[in-house]
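Example 3.2
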Amino acid sequence: MSSAKPSAKPNNPNFSSGPCSKRPGWSLDALSDALTGRSHRSGPGKAKLAEVIDRHRALLGIPDDYHVGIVPASDTGAFEMAMWSMLGARGVDVLAWESFSGDWLKDVTGQLKLDDVNTYKADYGDLPDLSAVDFNNDVVFVWNGTTSGVRVPDGEWIDVDRAGLTFCDATSAVFAYDLPWDKLDVTTWSWQKVLGGEAAHGMLVLSPRAVARLESYVPARGLPKIFRMTKGDKLNAGIFKGATINTPSMIAVEDCLDALKWVESIGGVAATIKRSEDNFAALADWVSKTDWVDFLPADEAVRSTTSICLKVVDPWFTAQSDEVQGAIIGALAKRLDQDGVAYDIKGYRDAPHGLRIWGGATIERADIDALCPWLDWAYETVKAEQPAKAA
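Structure, written as tokens:
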């Protein structure tokens, strides 16, 4: 490493893992056609919402017999309404290996208070044993662990002939990986991840099997209005045609449409997948040549190409107390923030002390390349300033 401060900065310092960077070239002009001051239930309002659904379906290749809806409260709201509406009809297997998957486990056991639950846990940086999952049960999992940088490697482990439903939180995965829709019964995400859209609204996709569950199973618990997806004993189809349960932001809707049109303009999902892979490759090349840092996940096959999580392996750093390690990472992130080089790259608060750099499709590879020398400089500078014991 060189102690010389780099001169070239990333053109875009927004490396946050959510809300994520806007698409290249974005400006407020992209919102000029937003239906501000108009009802979302007006003809033009319904058309905008339906367009969001239709463009998602076409871009992602979602089967025609699947239902695609816009729901309240981002990915969290979408996943909660699915769990509260459908879980309890049979046993549940829950996979938990980072913060949000851990939250779903807490909800299943502590809030829904389901009794027949199998738990598969792993520490940050690892995956549970996927081969142990019982697909006679409902299965709850995240595709991409945003706070750990660990993803499932593919969908081969999911049983096509499963008896239960699969509940997939795919919020950092949609538009970054090729998802096997035939193996996913309930899938959720938000606009603010790979699309770089605004937060607060979630997407919910239901397979015909999930719809059958909704129409045949009534859970023995009350459901708040924003969780209700049926009228009588039938699916409320309006939700999946743009008739949202509550009032959406038409500015956020316009921003989502802008992001979807950008995806179309660059070549669709194949292009967004490649952009994420290229960004990850740029960071991986730097990691391979850098002795103080490594990926948090040891297994290359499960490393996220979007929420890329790094750990510090320098013996000097690992010899410090947990408190000092946290202070060092905080100082490093703060220094890059103050220099306008990288915003919001400190690891998630519950994760091991390290860095988290968003590599999704709205990030340019050139900005990852420009960031890497700054990471070296910031670490070396903070290390030199830190009075610490020898390793």
